[in-house]
Amino acid sequence: MKILVLLGVLTLPAVAGVAAGEQALLTGDFAAALRELMPPAKAGDAEAQFHVGVMYTRGQGVGQDFSEAAKWLRLSAEQGLPAAQANLGILYEQGHGVSQNDQEAVKWYRLAADHRDRTAASHLGLMYLDGRGVQQDNEQAALLLLQAAQQGDVSAQTHLGVLYVQGQGVDRDFDEAMKWFFLAAVQGDPLAEYSIGVMYYQGLGVGRDYAEAVTHYRKAAVQGEWKAQANLGFMYAEGQGVALDNIQAYMWLTLASTGGDSANSENRDLVARKMTPQQIAEAQRLAREWKPATNPTR
User: Fold this and answer.
1) How do residues 32-89 score in pLDDT, each as one tens digit?
2) Which CATH number fits the domain 188-298, given the four candidates 1.25.40.10, 3.30.300.20, 3.10.410.10, 1.10.10.10?
3) Where exactly are the structural domains of the chain?
């Protein structure tokens, strides 16, 4: 009995260390967090190992080191912690700290998703959608994305909306698509805002409304979503839903051209033919000085 009591007492500092470390993480004191978390992590505590792994991933309190992150996340994942399994899956999917391996990513995502980890379900759904590491399966992708979306995963909500627009793995349903786009947009997702803009521009499930399309394109564009920047530039160039403004059109098309689509540069050059040298110089200045916003007011 004395031995059992002694063992119980010995576990308390580790538990306390994890709690103190988690509190330090919340306050942004990463040095204190690492100091509290490392002893229980070395002693085998799965939660502490997970936190240490994430700190190495993000370079919080330590130099960013994906190999070290993978080591700690694996130790935690092998003990069954879903969050660690999901994060280890991400490292395998992206090839950070480990050799890139889609099959290994799928393995860890599936283990975590089976325990309702929304990040894992979202990533695994996209793996099924693209056929990476698994046989391509739209219906399985939709089920996993729905699981994650219902738990509030932003990426899953947006991609599920796209599936409803396209009728992939689910029946085409524009109302359902808009529901998921709006849920993601409320959380600040620029791709969701862009998608809502497209719905209003094309009149999918809603009345065609160019002004409303501009509103949502702008919310995505100011966050750096290049497809929204391109569409917003086009709207300014054509005067659709907004007063015609070649300076704004040139600026947004210039910004969109960094997205890799040469058509945006070509469209910008077409707009430039209607502008004076002074207007072009002003548009170029605006593009140079532009900075992306985060979480614009809805």
Assistant:
1) 999 999 999 999 999 999 999 999 999 999 999 999 999 999 999 999 999 999 999 9
2) 1.25.40.10
3) 188-298
Confidence of residue 258 (pLDDT cuts 50, 70, 90): confident
Q: What would the 3-class secondary structure string for the chain be?
A: CHHHHHHHHHHHHHHHHHHHHHHHHHHCCHHHHHHHHHHHHHCCCHHHHHHHHHHHHHCCCCCCCHHHHHHHHHHHHCCCCHHHHHHHHHHHHHCCCCCCCHHHHHHHHHHHHCCCCHHHHHHHHHHHHHCCCCCCCHHHHHHHHHHHHHCCCHHHHHHHHHHHHHCCCCCCCHHHHHHHHHHHHHCCCHHHHHHHHHHHHHCCCCCCCHHHHHHHHHHHHCCCCHHHHHHHHHHHHHCCCCCCCHHHHHHHHHHHHHHCCHHHHHHHHHHHCCCCHHHHHHHHHHHHHCCCCCCCCC
pLDDT digits (tens, 9 = 90+) for 115-156: 999 999 999 999 999 999 999 999 999 999 999 999 999 999
